[in-house]
Amino acid sequence: MILEALQDHQNTTQLVIDKLTGSIEQACKMISDTIKSGNKVLLAGNGGSAADAQHIAAELSGRFVKERRALPGIALTVDTSALTAIANDYGYDHVFSRQVEAFAHGGDLFIGISTSGNSQGILNAFETATKLNCKTLGLSGRDGGKMNGICDLNIVVPSNVTARIQEMHILIGHILCQSVDNLFE
């Protein structure tokens, strides 16, 4: 079982190398341009993808590797009062879109993470971000789902296994953070 999981991870990593390097490079440019222009990065996801959103936001506001100033990385998954109030008043499908409406401005970057590419709350947040003239980046898996047609760039991890998709999402998240670190001397 252990060797099978490691081999599956390695195979998925090779597929990402073979098929997604150009898309990851585009995503690095998106996040770097956002930070260089003084805008912020907002992130959201559900479950494990929420943890990934929080992880990436923490790497930006804290630091990744390089000692640098704190950067505006905001996970929309952490405010339990906002999440539960919005879910109660508007429905769970709006917990992220309402926060995007509250915090995002034109030029900001919204990163939505969904292994299926079909999480309605994430799709709604993409729609709101687009209306606000934000850049939109998706991290998905399987066939990319509805995110394919709704965000500026959707990086679709070529796997149907949630664990492998999430492993690649955090790897891609770390690469994005490295590209931001590279902006600083």
Automatic annotation (TrEMBL):
Substrate binds at residues 46-48, 59, 88-89, 114-116, 119, 166. Its EC number is 5.3.1.28. It is found in: Cytoplasm. Gene3D superfamilies: Glucose-6-phosphate isomerase like protein, domain 1 (3.40.50.10490). Residues 31-185 form the SIS domain. It holds the Pfam family SIS_2. This is Phosphoheptose isomerase. It comes from Mucilaginibacter lappiensis. The lineage of its organism: Bacteria, Pseudomonadati, Bacteroidota, Sphingobacteriia, Sphingobacteriales. The gene is gmhA.
